[in-house]
Amino acid sequence: MRYVDEYRDPALAAKLAERIAETVTRPWVIMEVCGGQTHSIVRYGIDRVIPPAVELVHGPGCPVCVTSLEMIDRAHAIASRPDVVFTSFGDMLRVPGSRGDLLHLRGQGADVRVVYSPLDALRIARENPSRRVVFFAVGFETTAPANAMAVWRARREGVTNFSMLVSHVLVPPVIATILQSAGNRVQAFLGPGHVCAVMGFREYASLSERYRVPMVITGFEPLDLLEGIWMTVRQLEAGRAELENQYVRAVSAEGNRPARDLVFEVFEVSDRKWRGVGSIPKSGLKLAHEYRAHDAERLFEVDDIVTRESPLCISGQILRGLKKPCDCPAFGRQCTPQTPLGATMVSSEGACAAYYQYGRYLESEAAREVPG
C-alpha cells in the first residue's frame, strides 16, 4: 500500500541503521515518547538493528497507561450507578482499578458500553433522555479535539443528560518532569508525531532549549523511527540540542489551529495526577467553567476515593524510562494480557503489552532460567 510500504522498505531501513552505526561513537539513551512508536520499535525490532550503544527507553506516551488509579476508580463508582449509561473506548474497560475493572462491572449488570467516538456517546444521550450518559474522556492532546466537539455540541443542542469524566493529559509537562527527576537517564527524545500534528511543535522547541536536550518529532513507521534516531544521534554526537521535525508530511510548527482553538475553548489547563508518575502541575485538561454542566466529576461527587495499587507492578518506573518490562519479576507470569496488574499491560499502546505481544516475555523467561 502506497504511503505505508514506502516507509517500510528493508533496504532503506538497513541503510539508515548503517548511518546510525557510522555516526555513534559513545553510549546514548533516547526516549520515544509515544506508545505507538514503542509498538513499532518492538514489532519491527528497531531497537535490535541499531548499535547497542544507542539504547531506546519507553516513555509515558500511552494515555490509557497514565490515567490515574483514582480516575479509574471514579469511573467505576459512576458506572456502578443504576441510572447511568457509562461509555468508553474499549481499551479502558480492562484497566485494573482498586476494585476491579469496568468489564467485570459490566458482567455484574452495569450499563457499560464501548463506543468508537464521543459523538456516539452523545447520540446515546439523545436517544435515552431519562438516563445519565457519561463518556470517559482520556488521552493526550490528540484525542482532545473530538472530545471537545462532543461537549461543545451537547451544550449547544441542550443535551443535559450528557457529561464527561475528563482525564486528559499533556505531553510537554511530563517531559520536563522526567528530565528533572532523580536518576534520569534520558539524553534525547523522539517526539510524539500525532500530538504535534494537532498542537504544533513550538513548545517542544522551548523544552529542548531550556533543558539542553535534542528532540526530533518522529512518525511511526520503521523508516520514520530510524531516521529520527539518526537525526537525534547526530545532534548528540555534535553536542547540539535543538528541535527537528522528521515527520514533515504530517506535522507543522502551528499544528491544526481550528482543532487547537476548539480544545482551549472547551477545556482549560489543570494539574493532573499520572499513574505511576504522580501529580504534575499544569499537565492536564479539565472542562472550562462555561461547560461545568457537563462535568461528570462535579455532577457525581466522586472526589473521595481511596486507591490500592498492585505492589508488584513497576509500570511507573517503565513510564519514566528507568526500567523495561523484562525487568519486572511479574512480567509474563502474574502479569499477562489476560491477568494484567497494571495499565501498561492492558493498553494497545502499553510497553508491557508490546513486549508480550511480540514474544519478548519468552526471552525474559529464558533469562530467568539461566543459572547464576
UniProtKB/TrEMBL annotation:
It comes from the Bacteria. The keyword Iron applies. Keywords: Iron, Metal-binding. The keyword Nucleus does not apply. NCBIfam families: hypD. Belongs to the HypD family. This is Hydrogenase formation protein HypD. It comes from Anaeromyxobacter oryzae.
